[in-house]
Amino acid sequence: TDDSSFCLRIFKIIVIGDSGVGKTCLTHRLWSGRFPEKSEATIGVDFREKVLEVEGEWIKIQMWDTAGQERYRKSMVQHYYRGAHAIFYVYDVTDERSFQSLPVWIEECRRHSRGHDVPSVLVGNKCDLHGASRVSGDVARKFAELHGMPFFQTSAKNPQVSDNPEDILAMVAQRLKNQKPLALNPPLGTEDLCAPNTEKRGACGC
Ligand SMILES: Nc1nc2c(ncn2[C@@H]2O[C@H](COP(=O)(O)OP(=O)(O)OP(=O)(O)O)[C@@H](O)[C@H]2O)c(=O)[nH]1
């Protein structure tokens, strides 16, 4: 047998954001290719993993779909962030409040990742809806630039109308695999902050 097949690098991605923005649906879309008919509030964390081939290397992606509701997440917060290689910050494009909450999520991440800024992407979800209070794409893009994150607008329900969630994951996986910053043009002075957290990289028993 080929021993290298048991020697996968593992990358942990956590999905963060207010309750109801669609974290579970996005994760479900990525793992099953479908939009779930029913989605209930996540309690604690929902954990999925899969093996992806990226440019000839098989890597294992672990996706941690976290609870947005405070009462379902309190005791788990440390576990979410420990060893995370990347974060999807998700907001709902029809819900201004979920966008306004982002600095709080970013701050929480900083507190728990011991001074490291974990490479992140900003994902506006529910682009298939045309609600009155849509968060401006330009404003969100500027926010993402300010924080050195690539920005995507997507829909777990109807990926055709927007960036495809699978493409977002593929891009993140490719950058993690190559240990490149997630943002193409990190803002001046933040290059180190965008570098992948390599401390727990390569969880390989070989
Ligand atoms: N129209 C539309 N609805 C969506 C989309 N994504 C999620 N939803 C709906 O939004 C609601 C909340 O989705 P969830 O995925 O459970 O939200 P969550 O962020 O995981 O919520 P918590 O687990 O409480 O943190 C559900 O009713 C979904 O059907 C989307 O892309 N488009």
Describe the structure in your own words:
By secondary structure, this protein is of the alpha/beta class. It has 7 helices and 6 strands, in the order βαββαβααβαβαα. The chain has helices at 23-32, 77-81, 96-100, 102-112, 137-146, 165-177, 191-194, and strands spanning 9-16, 45-54, 57-66, 86-92, 120-125, 151-153. Strands 2-3-1-4-5-6 form a 6-stranded mixed β-sheet, sandwiched between helices. The longest helix is centred in the last third of the chain and has 13 residues, at 165-177. It is globular. The two termini are 14 Å apart. Residues 19-25, 39, 41-42, 67-69, 125-126, 128-129, 155-157 line the site of guanosine-5'-triphosphate (GTP). Residues 19-25, 39, 41-42, 67-69, 125-126, 128-129, 155-157 line the site of guanosine-5'-triphosphate.
